[in-house]
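Write out a sequence, fold above all:
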Amino acid sequence: MKKFVLFIFALFLFAGCNSIFQYVFMPPEREEYSIIPDPDLTSKLEDSSYFVSKDGKMVGYNAKSWKLEIRYMSDFQLNNYEFPDESGKFEASGNPYTYANWIDPSIGYTPRRFSVFKVTIYNYTNSKINFDPEASLLVTDRGDKLNAYAREKKNAKFFSMEEYYQKRKGTSGLEDEVFETRMGIVRRTMLAYGKPIYKGDSRDGLIVFDPVSDNIGKLKLSIDKFVTSYDENNDPAEFANLEFYFKQVAVPKEEREEIKSNGVTLKDSSIIEMSVAQIKYATMPGQSSFDIPWNPKPRSLPNLMQTAARNLKLKPKIVEGSFDDEAVKESHVAFIFGSGISPEFSSTFVSGCAEYLSNGGFLYIDNCYFSGEYPFLTLMESFIGDVRKKLVGKSEIKRINLDHPLFSIWKEFTALPTGMDDISSSQMKSDEIKGLFWDGKLVAIISSKGYPVLWSDEGSSYDNVTQLDFGVNLISYSIKNRKK
């Protein structure tokens, strides 16, 4: 016993000389913080164009002809959902926005490297608009004024990510590789002032500031000279100056545990690699066509999967193809979106879909085009009827009742979420969604509600939180369906 006490005493003496042992026996209780919109300060702007999302995580400005949304990206989000493959090698991690899983031995936890915000810009009707991230300023209630980082050192107004990492890079081949990995992600994901955003387009990316201290309470993100129009000489002519208010809050311990165990309904504590497929289909000849008739809302699946990744332990992947493509065969759920153009489903396409369902896949069909002349339900119910004939065993197409696990696997729904059919002036409204049940199990959904339109949030100021939550339920159910 005496030798053990002397050992412990010697270890504590050694700990005074080497901080890596400082927290072996008494690790500090680390308070975690998040930055969320401040609805009270936002309302004091007295401008109805500002809004805070229903989930309280995103603040935006809707000018009707264009819209801008801002969401804080926590280290947890950046490490686990955005860049999981680049966040597990400690100091050699390729994630440029965090310290990944490295722990600072002098303080016993992982500090914040930057303050990162995701900005999404939609241009609905203006000819072109533009945004200079370096015209952004993050101001704290302590008096800090933080300028945004540029991507490259050349022409940077203040700081750049390139210069930041050049100063920290050694001369080894490994450090060169890590530097290039980080800069590759920076160039791909950070916003930069350049090509305008034209009518009908959208753009999203990250803006980066130095980290804020834990004792900061209030923050204001100012965006100066947001370009809303250009003159005949192609020079910026009209601008908007915007202010977005945030507050830093401590994350309760029980919520921290909930975040770390998200997706528990799927009975899996590890991050799941989740693949979804956008199904390509042929169209009947002689029709005026969308550029991509099988994908009328290109932002729909990316937005849905980003939401699912935030709320479930997922590493999402989106593939495109037909049912005979290997990447589609391996996906958890396949999506078919109607675009107003009549599809042509060959016998090979029908057989491929039946095989996909037989191997554990899940199918979701929905409408993205609302016109009385478009026989969406007739076409899709006929298609599913043909698929049903290819399945061996008992099958039926019927209404999906609200007591089905689809409506409670993640979020509980007591009513069908509002669809685009309810919002549009079209008479094509429905109070149900139908399913293909095979041996008692739901394997496909036929909806005419238009949820993909709301998932994409293109051209609409409608709050789509409920519809995205339903989409997360759909993803959760498809994962469980695939496992079985």
User: Anything to note?
Assistant: The mean pLDDT is 85. The longest strand covers residues 236-250. Residues 149 and 158 are 7 Å apart (CA to CA). Residues 31-254 form one domain.
